[in-house]
Each structure stands twice: as structure tokens, then as C-alpha cells.
Design brief:
Blueprint (H helix, E strand, L loop, with lengths): L1 E6 L5 H12 L3 E3 H15 L6 H4 L6 E4 L6 E4 L2 E2 L7 H11 L2 H12 L5 E5 L2 H5 L5 E6 L2 H8 L7 H14 L11 E4 L5 H12 L1
Parallel strand pairs: 1-6, 1-7, 2-6, 7-8
Antiparallel strand pairs: 3-4, 4-5
The structure holds adenosine-5'-diphosphate and deoxycytidine diphosphate.
Adenosine-5'-diphosphate (ADP) binds next to helix 1 and helix 9.
EC number: 2.7.4.25
Family: Belongs to the cytidylate kinase family. Type 1 subfamily.
Pfam family, one: Cytidylate_kin
């Protein structure tokens, strides 16, 4: 069984997926972490983030470890995870995620993973796992999302809100909800409330 949980930036996808996956006793996979890893490696190599030919050679050692408590991304023996949520990766990642060659590489990593699993991102229910039987799409207002992210970033809430809104705009193409996804406004809910809502639908 595959459960897809897509949604806009900072809507709670990773935290909710982790909770749902732990309740189900299956792994979850964060596709956004792979786009973030490509971005980090590109930045560290001084590569042009708009050029897939400069990025693809950097990816041969990259591997996603789908731990239920929190995914990790490795480049050979180096654990990249702690560096994937910086503001500079946030700023560059949408350029990388717009490249069809990089999307193909990410999709291949995800489709190689054995079910059952919970997959989260933008296009899990539309493109990567279109036949998944259970699809969810998380939303919340930009201000609510910025307030949540402000607990994890040094910038203030208005700056974070502006950056999130700009990233939503850049990610629009791949972020449409699947027609058969259940849309959940997480604004009025607690994190556990969102997890419980999804688990109730799965029962
Ligand atoms: N009702 C809620 N639903 C989802 N996440 C919430 C909620 N309330 C607070 N959060 C917090 O919002 C933050 C962003 O969630 P995260 O899982 O990183 O989002 P995403 O994967 O969509 O970027 C986390 O710190 C999470 O715990
Ligand atoms: N399936 C996916 C997952 C993420 N992306 C892109 C879009 C986002 O800007 C980045 C980072 O996504 P991630 O889910 O890690 O982070 P945010 O919730 O957006 O803060 O990757 C994508 O295009 N397709």
C-alpha cells in the first residue's frame, strides 16, 4: 500500500508523514529532501543550478535513507541531512526542482523503494505514484506556515512568509493536488490532529 501526502511549503508534510508512517509501522519518504540534496551539492560545487549537466554528475553517491523517525540523505559516507534546511538551500531548490532531468532522477530513486510506504512532496499523488489508493494534500495560509517555520529558521515571520509565497509560485507547476486527493486545511488543527484525520480516513 502507498499513501501520498503532498502539499505546499511548510504545510506539515514531513511531520505528518512521519506520524502517519509510525502509526502504520511503515517507512515514509521525503522527496523534497532529494531536491534539497541536489541543490546543496550544486551549491557546494559552485555549479550553475539551472544546468542539469552540471548537477547530474554530482549525484552518483546520493542515497535516501527512509527512516520512520526522520529521513536522512547520504552522499557516499557523508550524512548531508543537517545541511538541507538552510535558507540558501530554500532559495535555490525551486530552480533545481524545475529541471526535468533532475525530476526524472528523483522519481527513479522513489519508484525503486519497496511498498508499503508513505511518500510526501508535491507530485507524489499526481506523477510518481498516480495509482496510490490513498492521497492527501495539506494546505494552510502563508502566515500560519511562516509562523511554524519561524520556529526553525533565524529570519522573522514576514521575511519567511515572503520567501514561502515566492517558492509556492515557483513550484506551482508540480504542486497541483491530484484530483482524487483529500485536501486538509491544517491551519485549525494540531499536528496530531492532522495525523489522526488521515489515520481515520485510512481505517
Ligand atoms: N497543525 C499542524 N500540522 C502540521 N504541521 C504543524 C502543525 N502545527 C505545527 N506544525 C509544525 O510545522 C512545522 C513545519 O512542518 P514540516 O513537517 O517541516 O513541513 P513540510 O514538510 O511541509 O515543509 C513543523 O515544525 C511542524 O511540527
Ligand atoms: N515532490 C517534490 C518535492 C519537493 N519539490 C521541491 C519544491 C520545494 O521548493 C523543494 C523542497 O521541498 P520540501 O518538501 O523539502 O520543503 P518545503 O516543505 O517546501 O519547505 O523541493 C518538488 O518540486 N517536488
Amino acid at each position: 500500500m502507498i499513501v501520498t501526502i503532498d502539499g505546499v511549503a511548510a504545510s506539515g508534510k514531513s511531520s505528518v508523514s512521519s506520524g502517519v508512517a509510525q502509526a502504520l509501522g511503515v517507512p515514509y519518504v521525503s522527496s523534497g529532501l532529494l531536491y534539497r540534496a541536489v541543490t546543496l551539492l550544486g551549491l557546494e560545487a559552485g555549479a550553475d543550478l539551472a544546468q542539469p549537466g552540471a548537477l547530474l554528475p554530482l549525484l552518483s553517491g546520493v542515497r535516501l535513507e527512509p527512516l520512520a523517525s526522520g529521513n536522512r540523505v547520504w552522499n557516499a559516507v557523508h550524512d548531508l541531512t543537517a545541511d538541507l534546511h538552510s535558507t540558501r538551500v530554500d532559495t535555490g531548490v525551486s530552480v533545481v526542482a524545475a529541471l526535468p532531468e533532475i525530476r526524472e532522477w528523483v522519481d527513479a530513486q522513489l519508484r525503486a523503494l519497496p511498498a508499503p510506504l508513505v511518500a510526501e512532496g508535491r507530485d507524489m499523488g499526481t506523477n510518481v505514484f498516480p495509482h496510490a489508493p490513498h492521497k492527501f494534500y495539506l494546505t494552510a495560509s502563508p502566515r500560519v506556515r511562516a509562523e511554524r517555520r519561524a520556529r526553525e529558521r533565524p529570519e522573522d515571520i514576514p521575511a519567511i512568509e515572503a520567501a514561502l509565497t515566492e517558492r509556492d509560485r515557483q513550484d506551482t507547476t508540480q504542486s497541483a493536488p491530484a484530483p482524487d486527493a483529500r485536501i486538509i486545511d491544517t491551519g485549525p488543527l494540531t499536528l496530531q490532529g492532522v495525523i489522526d484525520t488521515i489515520l481515520e480516513h485510512l481505517r
